[in-house]
Amino acid sequence: MADIRPFCGVHYNPSLVKDLAKVLCPPYDVITPQMEQELYKRSDRNFVRIEFGRELPSDKNTDNRYTRAAVTLDKWLEQDALTVDKQPSIYVADHHFIHRGRKYCRRSINCLVKLEEWDKMVVRPHEGTQSRPKGDRISLLWALKADTSPILGLYDSHDKQISSLLDKQTAGKPILNADNVDEESYRLWAITDEETIGQIGDCLSDRPLYIADGHHRYESALTYRRERRTSSSPLAEEEPFDFVMMTLVDFTDPGLVILPSHRLVRGLSPSALDGLMVGLKTCFDVEEVPLNRGDILSQINALLSEDKDEVKLILYGLSQERFLLLRLRDFNIVSPMIPYFHSELYQRLDVSIVDHVILEELLGLTHENVRAFLDYTTDAIEAVGSVAEKEYQLAVIVNPVKPGVIKAIADSGDRMPRKSTYFYPKTPAGLVFYRFGK
Questions:
Q1: What is the pLDDT of residues 366-418, one digit of tens each?
Q2: Cα separations (Å) of 182 from 22, 42, 118, 409, 426?
Q3: Are 278 and 250 in a shared domain?
Q4: pLDDT at residue 135, rounded to an integer
Q5: Alpha carbons 375 and 388: distance in angstroms, whole number
Q6: pLDDT digit string, tens, across residues 290-347
Q7: Residue 419 lies in a domain
């Protein structure tokens, strides 16, 4: 089903750029203004200048973050700070990181995947998206003719044949090492052997791919391809922009970490808060639990870990000293509050019940205005602390979504609510990327 190809990757020249820790950057969608400033100071060749350059008051059509990124890319290539591999390769990356004191390594395949429309079900999404980030990425594609940061995809390995192939190919010396990149490290190998590349492609050709992180980037690539295909210039049956760079991870990879996306709410009227408890008790069994400030995270994990098959949520904010543990009493009570066209699996998700039942039905936040009231965090302690410090009024704490649920939702053709999952950590921009034109 999936068409997998090698490519001549673009990456920093290790003989000229000695310390990759100073030049790699996160993908655009997690770069805050403060982080952007720090990345600019880190190195004159930090990849943020290409991935998500500064906006300036003087920006215009001929001089803006996108045109400056294109000039920077050409300049670094001319200076040999960036180099283009001569032989098409599939790249293997090991991403080492620590989460909650435990060491992990996430292994991925970096390759090209032929773009397919969603209805083909070759590449399957699992979350909804916003339009603005897509516009930004489309502008960057037109300016650079390059995929600067990879889409994180998942595949089902079945017989583990791919992992065996990768083990053999990573026995030698990597082409790039990056250590101490914000407490993470990377190893990158290039597979150039045509037989091995063919075997990897064959293993993945009979199964779908699932987008974990990067829905905007994939949709932007689809839009860009349509725009190029409808232009007046004559085009070949297959063009380089018909493919997109993806980094693919096995569903069973021990380094695949999915964090929950807790909801933070502010801007509610006093009347909305006053009536919330009554509304909660119509849908949930509500248990008040004294807050253990000595070990909040362990308390939250213990409360949410029991009886994992039932929907359980923690709400904090109606009292400064207590959690509200919410157990869904009867799915039939809340089912009419969730859009009927969604699958039953979607309707039973923790995040679906939070968004549709608590936020929309009980608090009256509409789909149009909910973004003005809502923020997200993966850190439960941060969620509780921000409410305790009056930055937000409510925090709703949820369990993480399991990989199997993501696959099942995507296979059904449905999509989870926005910000249902957070794949940790983010894959960096600048390690290796795909330039499909000049």
A1: 766 777 899 999 999 999 999 999 999 999 999 999 999 999 999 999 999 98
A2: 10, 12, 35, 33, 12
A3: no
A4: 86
A5: 16
A6: 999 889 999 999 999 866 668 899 999 999 999 999 999 999 999 999 999 999 999 9
A7: no
The type of residue at 372 is A
Q: Does 277 lie in the same domain as 203?
A: no
Tokens coding 173: 């010396």
Closest CA to 134 of 14, 219, 239: 219
Q: Which residue has the tokens 């799915």?
A: 331
User: Can you give the pLDDT at residue 371?
Assistant: 74
Return the exposure string of 57-76: e unless at least 16 CB atoms fall within 10 Å of the residue's CB, then b: eeeeeeebbbbbbbebbeeb
| Contacting residues for 204 by C-beta, under 8 A, at least 6 apart | 2, 4, 155, 162, 248
Does residue 145 form part of some domain?
yes
DSSP H helical ranges for 284-430: 296-305, 331-334, 344-347, 350-352, 370-373, 380-388, 403-411
Beta bridge partners of residue 253, listed in sequence order: none
**What is the pTM assigned to this prediction?**
0.93
The domain total for the chain is 2
Which residue range(s) make up the domain with 331? 261-399
- The residue type found at 251 is F
